[in-house]
Write a structure and sequence with these properties.
395 residues, alpha+beta, Uridine Diphospho-n-acetylenolpyruvylglucosamine Reductase, domain 3, Alpha-Beta Plaits, four-stranded antiparallel sheet
């Protein structure tokens, strides 16, 4: 059984990393333990748990800013923010459904992996919400960068670098985030029966219109009928106006549905967390592409395997579940994505598959050299999540 270190505060965390470097002990960093399948399969000498480094350090509702320690659960953060009518704008995905995991997602792990949800198309990703960090590098040095409120932000380059580094540059101990208000009202406009090509056109028109949407997804096989889903949020009168105008712009004789309340919330939670593929252990790929390329990529994937797919971010994000743990299929996915200039990440796969397949999109030679150089500066002994990744996270 792996040795587990559970520091009670930042100072003890720094001491543990300093000692690990001295003793050449490699560390696997653990938050809530909900997304242990994300990244290349690694073996380390010990686990570094941040469960005790938790709590809200600062919350200023009027300034729309929050400072939280890395081990703070998203559940605790959301509960606090909801009381003030606020939320995390990037609406982070919860991986428990696809990994069949338990525990509670933590803010440090979400920032380290740059995890975002369906609102990314309008609110940006986790990296965009990050305004400050405290972390301990691989030499045990405590580093602070950025600020605690937006008006004091400096040194954003290092702040952004930590988001999506998967703990390979340093262990986050505290993060500062900008927030967004919760909309007064939200609903879903669903158009039934569209083809993928038609759905991409519909979502593109919606995003290009002045009638702002905050979510756009296509579900090809939802209850045996394809559904193009658009989320509308705002003040009640704004939502009514946008719904009317979008219906006039987009709907040409198709069958539509309007969802509000619990059904609406359940739909977008399912899209965000890819619950379509929750009762499976089959390989699951995350393809980040140009939305206009979605039909061509879908067609090519269908030629190599009977892939099940859903499309988020107006087609810019494809979740593709393959049928077999086959290295040849993984190579084919990479080949297809290379043609279109996108990024492919193996989000779910067996330990055996993740040992022989590059989980993250391979970097170009010059980028790989730069990445290696940066890691060498931050973690010279390579003790933090060694070999977990080959590039810097979510694109």
């Amino acid at each position: 059984m792996d040795k587990i270190f559970s520091p009670k505060d930042e100072a003890e965390l720094a001491q543990i990393i300093t000692k690990a470097k001295s003793d050449n002990i490699s560390l696997r960093i653990k938050g809530g333990g909900t997304r242990q399948g994300l990244g290349n399969f690694i073996k380390t000498d010990a686990i570094l748990s941040l469960k005790n480094i938790s709590g809200i350090s600062l919350y200023e509702p009027d300034a729309l800013t929050l400072v939280a320690k890395a081990g703070t659960s998203i559940k605790e953060i959301n509960k606090l923010l909801k009381k003030e009518g606020q939320r995390l704008g990037f609406d982070p995905m919860d991986h428990r459904a696809i990994y069949h995991s338990s525990g509670e997602p933590t803010i440090g792990a979400i920032i380290a992996a740059n995890i975002s949800g369906s609102r990314r198309i309008i609110a940006g990703g986790a990296r965009d919400a990050l305004i400050g960090v405290r972390f301990i590098n691989g030499s045990g040095e405590i580093i602070k960068n950025g600020g605690r409120v937006m008006k004091n932000v400096t040194g954003l380059d290092l702040v952004k670098l930590m988001a999506g580094s998967f703990g390979t540059l340093g262990v986050l101990s505290e993060v500062s985030l900008k927030l967004l208000p919760i909309a007064q009202r939200e609903l879903s406009l669903i158009i039934n029966g569209q083809s993928l090509e038609k759905a991409i056109s519909t979502m593109s028109k919606a995003l290009g219109s002045p009638f702002e949407i905050t979510g756009a997804a296509f579900l090809p096989n939802e209850k045996d009928e394809a559904k193009t889903c658009l989320r509308i949020e705002g003040f009640s009168s704004q939502v009514d106006y946008r719904l009317k105008k979008l219906s006039e712009l987009l709907v040409k004789g198709e069958k539509i549905e309007i969802l509000e309340g619990k059904l609406h919330e359940k739909l977008w939670q399912s899209i965000r967390d890819v619950k379509t593929f929750k009762n499976s252990k089959k390989p699951l790929w995350r393809l980040s592409i140009k939305p206009s390329d979605a039909p061509a990529i879908s067609n090519q994937l269908s030629k190599i395997t009977a892939a099940d797919m859903i499309f988020d971010w107006a087609g810019g994000l494809i979740w593709a579940q393959l049928q077999d743990e086959d290295n040849a299929q993984a190579d084919a996915v990479r080949h297809i994505i290379k043609q279109f200039g996108g990024h492919a990440t193996l989000v779910r796969g067996s330990d055996e598959l993740r040992e022989v397949v590059d989980v993250f999109q391979p970097e170009q030679e010059m980028v790989a050299k730069l990445s290696s150089s940066i890691r060498q500066k931050f973690d010279p002994s390579g003790i933090l999540n060694p070999n977990l990744m080959g590039n810097f996270g979510e694109k």
